[in-house]
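Protocol step 4 of 6: structure prediction from sequence.
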Amino acid sequence: MTTYMVCCFRRRFRPASNEPSEAIRDVFQAYAGGDGALGEEALSRFLREVQGETSDADLEESAREIMAFAAEQKLLKKGGGGLTVEGFHQWLCSEANAALHPRRGVHDDMGLPLSHYFIYTGHNSYLTGNQLSSGCSEVPIAKALLDGVRVIELDLWPNAAKDDVEVLHGRTWTSPVELGRCLEAIKEHAFVSSPYPVILTLEDHLTPHLQAKVAKMIKETFGDTLHLSESETMTEFPSPDDLKGKIIVSTKPPKEYLQTKSSKEESQNGDTGEESVWGEEIPDNKALMDATRQVSEQDTKRYVKEEEDMEKVSQLGVNMEYKHLIAISLTRRKHDMDEDLKLDPEKVSRMSLGETAYEKATITHGAEIIKFTQKNLLRIFPRTTRITSSNYNPLMGWRYGAQMVAANMQGHGRKLWLTQGMFRANGGCGYVKKPNFLMNCDKMFDPRSNLPVKTKLKVTVYMGDGWRLDFHRTHFDKFSPPDFYARVGIAGVVADTRMEETKVIMDNWIPTWDHEFVFPLAVPELALLRVEVHESDNHQKNDFGGQTCLPVWELRSGIRSVRLCGRDGEMMRSVKLLMRFEFT
């Protein structure tokens, strides 16, 4: 029995048991032989009929691997028999039976131009916390790269003496980090988790002599891994395969930087006053908001002086070494969407839009955005009022083909979980091929239209386990075992988006829900399965018990093990769910 103290009384609860649920026992009995065990032939039948494996070669290999796993773990029936129900359950919960195939790796065609892929993109990659007063460091850059992020952003500013370059969020209280440390972190970690190219986007606020210094540092640090374009213009981007192991610099040509505001400064003027249709995640933090206004007032005079200084140095010319580093040019916006989205048959480029300007553009120019992103790159970045490093819903970018939907990787929350879920696809390499309908020039996709249902996804949540191993016995409730419930839903086009939940299982560390959900899907190619577990609390806010987000188009049919992550997106050590996925 499990005992909890309430004042001077003892409350006794049945000990947690990880035995197979009744539903799993029923599945086992449907295939087990007369001896109550699952032999290799019956196991192959289960793999074909329930797990959806069709190839005879795959069936034989899978059956052998499962039996070898069971023999190693001593889960076979004594006397050389088949798999016991306990062994069957233990294999179902193992990593070898994960919802996403553990050995599939990169499987998309990686030989197409960069514009054909969603690319894992970071925003203000050097920040350790909020956008206003946190520190700047190379550590979050290294972590982002190790997590599979392929687009790193650095903001470059002169130091106080105007003789060196610092990386920081300009006109805030963020503390700077040396550019050299950031470049070294990129060099060391760029290709640890993925061999595909890293794109380095630079927000440059530098004079020509400091641009020359940056050019020298980048060349010396990256050496042969730096991709230099043979021409200033190209009619088509190279492919991820072409650029394997390469670091690519993308920024606005220097002359334009000296004569215009940066894209971030444009967003400060144009992106305020309208909330995202997906809702705010910024808490009501009056101290931070007051501080923002104070910084703005204090920096107004300095900002004007910096702009005047930049106008003066524009007469000094452009550093050509720095200009030659730019392999993907950022085009200057004309602030007229008809002009901004006009296609140039002679060259491809990259454009940046703040989230609010982009959201407005999807209403008036949705088809033009999709057409533009079939050849060119579009980067969307969070609006500047997201001072707590919260994020917007990335699906509003992916629905229209935007490749670089930039996220604050330090801003944990549901919106970032969606980004992490998308890039679990294609082996976690940071590049996910866009659905074919987003590349169709003849019939333009409209995510807002009344779309027919393509398929239905039936999801069964059987049970969960692992909290008793990862958390203290009083973490969720001081006086009893936790009361868990699961939330399951779809994030995708508006027609597919919904969220459901199971009943609450009271006082149990290993809850068994056996709950079925059915999700009609109009666009499964853009659908993400959301899973969350919470601990119900009648008197306070419900406690968080784990989450994950998985690309629907890569889910394996059948009964599968689903590992859960913490708020920060990192896998929890032991917590997992047993679920079933059926497409009809």
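Step 5 (inspection) to follow. Residues 258-263, 265-308 have pLDDT under 50 and may be disordered.
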